[in-house]
Amino acid sequence: MRAAHITQYGDPAEAIEVVDVEIPEPGPNEVRIRVEAVALNHLDIFARVGHPEDDRSFPKRSGCDIAGVVDAVGTAADAEWLDRDVIVYPGVSCGECEYCMAGEQTMCHEYEIIGEDRPGGLAEYVIVPEWCLEAKPDTLDWETAAATPVTFTTAWRMIVVTGELRPAESALILGASGGVGNAALQIAERLGATVYATTSSEEKTAVVSEWADEVIDYTEIPHDDAVMELTDGRGVDLVADHVGQETWQDSIDSLAMGGQMVICGATSGPVPKIDIRSVYQHHRQIRGAPMGNRQDFRDVLSLVSREELVPQIDRVLTLEQIAEGHQALENREVIGKVVIRPYLNSEGIPF
Prior knowledge:
This protein is an alpha/beta fold. It has two domains: 2-148 and 311-341, Medium-chain alcohol dehydrogenases, catalytic domain (Quinone Oxidoreductase, Chain A, domain 1); 152-288, 3-Layer(aba) Sandwich (Rossmann fold), CATH 3.40.50.720. It has helices at 12-15, 42-49, 98-101, 142-146, 149-162, 179-191, 202-208, 223-230, 248-252, 277-280, 294-305, 322-330, and strands at 2-6, 16-20, 30-39, 65-73, 85-88, 91-92, 112-113, 125-129, 133-135, 170-173, 194-199, 214-217, 236-241, 255-263, 285-288, 313-318, 337-341. Strands 3, 4, 5, 8, 9, 16 and 17 form a seven-stranded mixed β-sheet that branches. α12 (322-330) links the parallel β16 and β17. The longest helix is centred in the middle third of the chain and has 14 residues, at 149-162.
């Protein structure tokens, strides 16, 4: 089968290679999926450029957001999954610890992510645990299905579960044209909150304006200054920040008295400067919210299947065009998601 392997650190054109490898076989509690679509995330970028917890082993196969058809099942897996269209919840946990028993799979000490800790979906076939399967709603095409799991589950966890945003409150969504940011923006708007969004161009502003009450171009004005101006000095009740050290202090300074910043990532770096007085003197909170649990995934998938939330697809590429997708995502040229279709040819026709 064809698979996109990261063979070294570096630029996409040099570090990613499409290779032929053997089709894998599922273990007893696993299934094999013929991958119809897989969406890129910043996890794919981190696998290529490296991060502090990287084991520095190659080749790597990323790809967390997977949708496809089950074409083989292990001896202990349910044969009824055969030939079914599925979406993959990308978190894998032990299923037995106190956190798993409470339904909090991402807190498990054995927690892994498909496409980061084990081979991902950027290939014609991928092996996943049977437990990770969710039936694909008939209303979703392959691209939308693949664009849903990581970003929308993470955003749901940030805004609804951890942030507990209410209709009468206000929220600032950073990077609102990206995958997680746009998902968070849609969720906050759907709740009825007053929503402020940051982005960096007129083109992106035109897109995010569909859901935002006010759009802030962070290339023209620091977002904390803009928020304070727009709210007459009050600030917002919640900031959803996935950017990290580049925006950290400005995000804290955007909060109202008693507000909270919810964080799910650190794409600009993990070591911010912080004035701790800006937190405790204003009764503010900083709360971590990585990708949501299985129930969060099901909740958000239900809304996407009814088009109450709509993943934005920036472009659909073939496996051979994956370097282009990496570069676009890294350069922040993307509005929404980049989706890879392994079974598309160079003319964009399935084979």
